[in-house]
Write a structure and sequence with these properties.
This protein has 574 residues and is mostly helical. Helices cover 37% and strands 8% of the residues.
Amino acid sequence: MKVIHKIIISLCISLILFSCDESVLDLKPLDSVSEVDVFNDEALLQAYVNATYSGIYHMHEANYLGTVGYEDLCFFKKTNADGFDTYLEGRIDETNGEGVSRGRWSRCYGYIRHINSYFEKTESSSISETTLESMDAEMHFMRAYYYFELMKWYGKIPLVKQRYELEDKDVRLPRSPLDEVVAFIVEDLDKVINSSLAVNTTPARASKGAAMAMKGRVLLYAASKLFNPNNDQAKWSAAATANKAVMDLAEYPLADDYGKMFNTSSYLDPEVIFAKEYNKTISQGQWSGANTLLLPNGFEGWQNATPTQTFVDMFDMKDGQRPFLSDGSVNPSSGYDPHDPYVNRDPRMDAIVFYNGMPFKDRNVEYWIQYEDDGDGSFEGRTPLPNSEQGKDTRYGNTGHEYSHTGYAWRKHTDESLSVDYAGVPLVYTPDVLYRKAEFYLNYAETQIALGNEAEARTAINVIRGRTGVELPEITYTGGELLEAYRRERAIELSFEDHRFHDIRRWEIAEDVMGKPKKGVWIEKLSTGDLVYNYNRVAEDSKLHVWDNKMYWMPIPQSEMTTAEGEWQQNPGY
């Protein structure tokens, strides 16, 4: 809330260099452009609008990989990276919470102030009403985006609906109840839905479709246990209606190639509704370094975050059966072979996870180690065979310091056709998908489970499982098994898309799935050449991961609490 407005004005003016033609630049020197100029010149104002997209959070921002490192199904290496160790070790408090949330409080309120200024200043603008209507819709969409970010992390928040000067102390506004926050976000989104914007424009810009998608997700969150402790069924019904509307949009067909949607540079699948695109002309020119951050170390990647064995075990067999029974033993009828565990699995696995033996570039991924004596795949107390070939993607490979701590790596978001880059030069421009069609089948399924309409839920889930390129058999589960199947399907389909961290919190299951050691696999190559898989591997440092129920909400920064002078109550536990 304390962001100095002139800095943002300067940012938007500087964007003219990238988004305006020479005739605009000839109008007057940049250092002479005033606020009056910005709000009365179409090109300058468009640059101002474009600047609001710069604040969108994305998966590869500052090497942090979004929220995947905070999830139960991913191991993030202990690196002392700002926020990750603080969160995973349970040391979060009001003095360091902004590091955990990547500055969401200050950043989001800074952009909200920027947007509120737009609405105030354009009331007397000389720009045509038709042009302003389109820009107004974009600004309502982006204000909803920033408020939704705040709502997800903090719950009750102050609703700042107009521009305040610093001396006005807008931080003294009360924290609005969740229902009011949701209503205000939906009000902004409805203005976009009822505007002249097209249903489907470029996925990097606001559209009716994108507003409908955000509304669906907002209302799903609002109906969930963390936001709806009394399980108000009316909220589930509202969420069902909103998500069904997106599900029915013909403008966004489901992708027929799951891997291509995420693993191809500069490609935006028709399924994508809204995305963070890496494009200078629309103020989205930030670096996406997925290959560097995610590839196995033998391919010169860092493997900052790696999937766990728990996640890999979620994938069904290709015939739709679960590889394991409820007691954790192998399902004898499934065809699952613990000595060859990755064959005949859900086809999405190859697009999401790097595993031992997976073909990539000019060789297969190698997560195996040879020891001095043949054993059972255990690691503790054993000495690697000296002067021998070792798996190229292990700690004993070419660059062992970047080895995987779980025996897996994320394939999703990487591009096989491109190299890594240590110099910071943009090499990977794979867009970050923020909203896509498949989510809304799953969102709708969740609402139907909550409303007791299990057949409707199964139908929606089976559309996702049965689409081209996946083609898994239909599920027939009921009751608690259906809910478990739904959550597995969501974890797989929407993996590494900034969902799981929020899902386990809004379902209030974080206390059950977090704070446990993260498991992976050890793979030993015997003298015979055979491989032995040991699934009891515990990733180093994961024993330090703890959970405290206060972490369902982030703390309001101490500086804001101090400025509020006792008028706000801190989130519970802080």
